[in-house]
Batch of 2 targets.
Target 1
Amino acid sequence: MSHILVTGGAGFIGSNFVHYAARETDHHITVLDSLTYAGNRASLDGVPEDRLTFVHGDITDAELVETLVGEADAVVHYAAESHNDNSLHSPRPFLDTNIIGTYTLIEAARRHGKRFHHISTDEVYGDLELDDLERFTEETPYNPSSPYSSTKAGSDLLVRAWVRSFGLKATISNCSNNYGPFQHVEKFIPRQITNVIRGIRPKLYGAGENVRDWIHADDHSSAVLTILEKGRIGETYLIGADGERNNKDVVELILQEMGQDRNAYDHVTDRAGHDLRYAIDSTKLRTELGWSPQFADFESGLAATIRWYQENEAWWAPSKDETEAFYASKGQ
Ligand code: NAD
Ligand code: TDX
């Protein structure tokens, strides 16, 4: 058994990882999370108490980070400001958490000689044309578009530099768009599901032709555990499940699954600088480390996610009105 420090473990993907790791491994897990608007302690309910230590704190707090990294065998770093729309409105917290927070963690990890896994996104590669035959690979040049993705790109480059210059024992993964339970209602899929539950028409940015490559959060978790166990130090692995869909199709699927007219949605103001298409080629992870996704069928994964939001209104309702007021102020 080992002891993993999970930053951002009260957020969407981090909490799914903690549940998954508690089920699939015998690791002890310490979560470090500052519980921003996106963090929710309740997302960790049900994780056996003797397997979890929750620390309410900030990844930019060097003294706290020094202690917690020293006590762990490995660090899995999820904590981030994660929403593109927020980064267009108020970029500063993205610099503090994504850049300075990552710097604070890797400094502690190198001082203590600890294994470090950095969680990142396919958005660091910019976007593809709809008809591009090539997908993103580990060799694709960085070309981020938004304040969010540029700070994630910056954090990836810090980790790479710390590997080369200081021998940090790190790996990096860049994953595509996740869906599943515990995702904040600001994000596309939960926003539309909870809109339908509330009797609000779903909101599609622009024409809705933008393509995202969807992966279930549990498949992201299994990939991260695989990289933690078998990944080569200094390597980057792309994580994806061949789940490309355009936004229009996803909204229509949600409406259909929820028993509504497939066309009962609104087109709203497009996102500034909106990336057109993301698509991941995960051949390296599959062939080198033998990983494969379990949720091959997006429709049934989406249907299960819809049921989760229907059954867990108490979890998301406190954030819904404020989130919709923010979007309404921008004509979205
Ligand atoms: P999220 O916004 O749902 O959760 C982020 C968590 O980090 C929250 O619990 C928040 O309280 C915590 N946090 C934020 N700032 C902090 C700080 N300074 N100190 C401590 N904790 C802090 O994000 P998510 O969607 O779960 O994304 C998690 C990670 O996965 C991020 O690094 C993101 O870039 C990456 N990622 C996300 C996706 C996706 O589809 N959502 C895809 C690929 C990669
Ligand atoms: O109401 C909406 N209507 C809409 O059409 C919202 C909130 C979004 N959209 C569109 C924008 C995108 O094309 O849906 C798509 C998905 O939007 P988001 O859920 O905001 O995700 P995205 O911007 O693609 O980024 C996500 O995936 C990569 C995560 O938020 C990032 O943290 C991750 O790095």
Note: The chain has a mean pLDDT of 98.
Target 2
Amino acid sequence: MTPTPKTALTIAGSDSGGGAGLQADLRTFFACGVHGMTAVTAVTVQNSLGVAGFSEIPVDVVTAQITAVAGDMGVNAAKTGMLATVEIIEAVASTLDEVGIGRGTQSHVPLVVDPVAASMHGDALLRQDALEALRTELLPRATLATPNLDEVLLLTGVRVSDGQSQREAAQALLELGPQWVLVKGGHLVNSPRCVDLLSDGTHIVELGGPRYETEHTHGGGDTLASAITAGLAKGLGVPDAVSSGKRFIERSVAEAYPLGAGVGPVSPFW
Ligand code: PLP
């Protein structure tokens, strides 16, 4: 019999095109050797050209998925992605407390919060009134928050343009309550390297890596956050989980492929 692997839960939206969202999370969990579980929050209608619309899952169904798997199978680490509405964010936050996931709970199962607000095409994945709930309900429960630069601007008002403003952004995010923040530099297009900043207020780690020339980066943020979540599920500390997640996303971006008429996904094939 195969020994039971570690488990990781993603609380996220579905991408019908299979490039991002829970589809990216599940295949990343698989590739990283952990058993993936899902609490679906919303179903997007989406292809390589963008998101045509989405429909949220009823709040009680979202929370029931979390309690069903946490009570029976156990969760070694969890991740949130697209949460769509205030109601879903509030209900997920209190359910995480009930099942002991996240900062401040007794068991403190690691929680990665990827504060998804919009697709790379600019399509909203979070209702406008839900940003404050993300700030006040979810970020304080995060072991690690992984915003991209657009999300940093929305959450803190800090526009990151260089290393100095990246540090200011990390500090502003830490004031919202996560234990660690990873301010991703991947969207700083004029920089020849891709430098991410990881900080818990005491330690500051700069993680540099090559910038790959590809337009096909759909699902990159989800893939990085779920690779980090898999590392945490396997018992790595945050800095080691982030380094291994970064190696995973670098390979995935290097092998990204065209699909459809728009933006193709980062690749699970390597
Ligand atoms: N669709 C869903 C369901 C997502 O969760 C995300 C990102 O988290 C996206 C789309 C957007 O991905 P991208 O910004 O790579 O287009």
Note: Strands lie at 7-15, 35-47, 50-56, 77-80, 111-113, 144-145, 180-183, 196-199, 204-207.
